[in-house]
Amino acid sequence: MEKGKKEKGKSIFCGVVVGAANSLFGGGGGMIAVPLLQKTGMREKSAHATAILLILPVCLTSLIVYFWRGLYDFSVLIPTAIGVTVGGLLGAKLLGKLPVKTVNLLFAALQAAAGLFLFFSA
After folding, report:
1. Could you tell me if 112 and 104 are in contact, meaning their C-beta atoms sit under 8 angstroms apart?
2. Which residues of the chain have pLDDT under 70?
3. CA of 114: how far to CAs of 49, 84, 98, 108, 111, in Å?
4. Measured between alpha carbons, how far is 89 from 95 in angstroms, rounded to an integer?
5. What is the C-alpha separation between 11 and 23, in angstroms, rounded?
6. SS3 (DSSP) at 43
7. How many domains does the chain have?
8. 21 lies in which domain range?
9. How many CB atoms lie within 10 A of CB 40?
10. Which letter, b or e, does each residue of 16-39 get, where b requires 16 or more Cβ atoms within 10 Å of its Cβ?
11. What is the pTM of this model?
12. CB–CB of 33/46 below 8 Å?
């Protein structure tokens, strides 16, 4: 298999993994996408930014399926959307200013905290 086809195959496989994780767990696809993108040779900050871009179609697809099944609680939509928008703007500004090592450390700490929270709340 030529290199281009092999790389596209890897990208499609990674996309399936990210999409499944994001829709199954209601998030987290970006956390899987970042290390997968880095494995392809993408720089750390580009991988973080690209992961956000990749999650958009996954979230829209999940939105349609969950909406169709009536699984939403719309009472939290507006306040949470405001918070996510402000946090997203702050995070995007910080990503451009923080050293790569700091971004990786914060990312790892967030993953560890989420894992511990899930482990002890089950």
Report:
1. no
2. 1-3, 26
3. 20, 17, 22, 10, 5
4. 10
5. 18
6. coil
7. 1
8. 3-121
9. 12
10. eebbebbbeeeebbbbbbbebbbe
11. 0.63
12. no
> Which are the contacts of 46, defined by CB distance < 8 A and separation ≥ 6?
37
Identify the CA nearest to 26 among candidates 70, 72, 90. 72
Determine contact, residues 61/75, Cβ cutoff 8 Å.
no
**For residues 48-83, b (16+ Cβ closer than 10 Å) or e, as one string?**
bbbbeebbeebbeebeeeeeeeeeeeeeeeeeeeee
pLDDT at 62: 82
Whole-number Å distance between alpha carbons of 98 and 90: 12
Closest by CA to 56, choosing from 75, 40, 33, is 33
Structure tokens at 63: 């939105």
Count the Cβ atoms, other than its own, within 10 Å of residue 47: 21
Displacement of CA 115 from its chain's centroid (Å) = 15
Residue 2 is predicted with a pLDDT of 63
